[in-house]
# Entry
Amino acid sequence: MKPGSVAVVGAAETTELGKLPHMSNIQLHADAALNAMADCGLKPDDIDGIATARENPIEIAHYLGIKPRYVDGTSVGGCSFMIHVKHAIAAIESGMADTILVTHGESGRSQVGMTPRGINPAMLDGQFQIPYGVTNPPTMFTIPVMRYLKTYGVDIEKVANVAVVQREWAAKHPRATFRDPLTVDDVMNARMIAWPFSLLMCCLVTDGGGALILTRSDRAKDFPTKPVYVLGAGEGGEHTLVSQMSDFTSSQAFRIAGKGVWESSGLKHSDVDHLMIYDAFAHLPIYGLEDLGFVGRGEGGDFIWEGNTRPGGKLPLNTNGGGLSYMHSGMYGMYALQESVRQMRGTSPAQVEGAKTSLCHGVGGMFSASGSIMFSNEAP
Amino acid sequence: MSDKPGRPVPKATPETQHFWDGCNEGKIILQRCKDTGKAYFPPRPFSPYTGSRNVETFEASGKGVLWSYIISERPNPNFDMEAPYAIAVVKLDEGVQMMTNIMDCDQTPEALQLDMPVQVTFKRLTDEINLPLFKPAS
# Structure
């Protein structure tokens, strides 16, 4: 890809976030998409490409009145939207689409009109995972962490602290679900969900959505919004059964996506002004910092503990409060992308002064997949 | 009238039937790539290391170590262990990892020590399925 060839010209979340039983899943997609179109002055007829996860993208396109010549239904969990952005770059650069809408809508809490998830006892998870009492992501995504803690001699308090720091950022965001400050003791003493993970180390469950509109950068000047250029992109994968993660202290999916985003953008760690690492659980930012190469192995917890990622720190991270404090509908990647775009536009309530670049890194499934996007507000 | 299995029951597929047949006999039957000698899991009739169909089954020792775990506090009406119960991954001596529960053991951080030796045990769920589980090695 050519860094900066494609830009985000439209971006918006759903009008509301949180508890939205009055909106079905598909309407959450539409609400976000309509807001993103209004953001940049486009109509459905102007959109020729559609990307979404979990739902059939044709259903979303039809509901919105879009006639796509580009369709991406990549559905590998919460990082799907980063991957949609990466695929959109290739499509737009090659002329296979001009204006791509990436949508997300998820009635994760209220469960209104969701695509059902079934359990099939003959599939691999039905045979080798489900029989062992897993219920929800807190009972799966967290399993590798005890091995990480032992390998590097890290205390669980360093993981609990991730939630504390992110709450400092959420306090600046009026739309964040939880904004009151936390202490490490608050997090450690919260109700235990899947030891060693307490409730406050697990993501929220809320309703909402978001949408992005991407097009060629040389068209971006025709739009009313400040263009956010895509400088690089990576995607990767590993497994769909957490028991098969080859290294419990490091994500192969993260490493592959990270390599892709660094190589395609040509940037260095010191070039990154703002960072988002999808935090389904409090250990994710630690794994992300290490697998993206910002810190050495086993050093992620200390890096955060020492204040480097908090307001005023040298590497602002998860400046919306993250999945732990801002919102999390089940697949969170779109909300991380929205905060990266706000930071590049200069419109975040938690604005990092003068930020020129933002790296937005997501996870899908239980460390199954990953997508990583490098944004800038300066054309290369 | 048979007892309800008490937990979700696996269903064998043509590619995993040999594994479940082995479990019925109280054995863990793994496969290994004949070219590299490396074992792999879950079962499949080819090597994920080489893409070759040159693989063979073999009986594993049934021994391994506790690799990692969490202790779920959430009540689970579809499960025969009462919360809190651990969901663990064991690493077998042959190198493969399997999800499991740790039986005959307090479900506490003090009792569940990473790297402690474990050995396979089985729980019959139905006539077809004898589920592999692990317990601290004696």
Q: What stands out?
A: The mean pLDDT of chain A is 97. Chain A touches chain B at residues 119-122, 124, 126-136, 138-140, 142-147, 150, 191-197, 241-245, 248 (CB under 8 Å). DSSP finds twelve helices and eleven strands in chain A. Residues 25-40 of chain A form the longest helix (16 residues).
